[in-house]
Write a structure and sequence with these properties.
Blueprint: H1 11-18, H2 36-41, H3 49-68, H4 72-76, E1 79-87, E2 94-95, H5 97-111, E3 116-119, E4 124-126, E5 129-139, E6 153-165, E7 168-176, H6 178-185
Parallel strand pairs: 1-7
Antiparallel strand pairs: 1-2, 3-5, 4-5, 5-6, 6-7
Length: about 190
Amino acid sequence: MQYRIPLMLSSTLLLLACAKAPEPPAPEAKPAMPSASAAATAPAPTPAPEASVQAMDKLLDDYLSAWNAHDIPGAGSYLDEGVLYLDVSVGEVQRGRQAAEDNVIGVLMRAMPDLEWTLRGDPIIQGNGIAYEWQLTGTNTGTWAGIPASQQKVNIKGGTIMRVKDGKIFYQADYYDVASLNRQLGW
């Protein structure tokens, strides 16, 4: 028996997908008193976790801005060379930045040259993960997967899960109701 799960993920599922198990508390230790010379030569403190949250938030903003500018190589530049990218409408994982640009980013931008991604609420950022809900609007004025343009407007909502390493997206999965997209396109 095959079970079907709705493709639209809830915020709760997105949060769980990005959540990391909490670290156990470190044993308490008595702080050592630094000497004056040690304090003067000590390395700068590690940035607060908020700094990485801000960097991840900026990465997401910049990535979506490149999509909204309809810049295929620009959007691709945020992907790691070895990225694994799943868009449920494509149906198979794209392995590598060039495959993601050719088979997801480029296809979508050429099919809907006026596409626009809008965040729905604040992204959930934790550890190396980003999860967010989005809305995509656009008009299908270009060929899509060999199908001539339908001239239909598209307005779909979905969710994305990303993993980031060294400032690049090395995993991305986009989930949405493909049947609704196909209906809107008149397919």
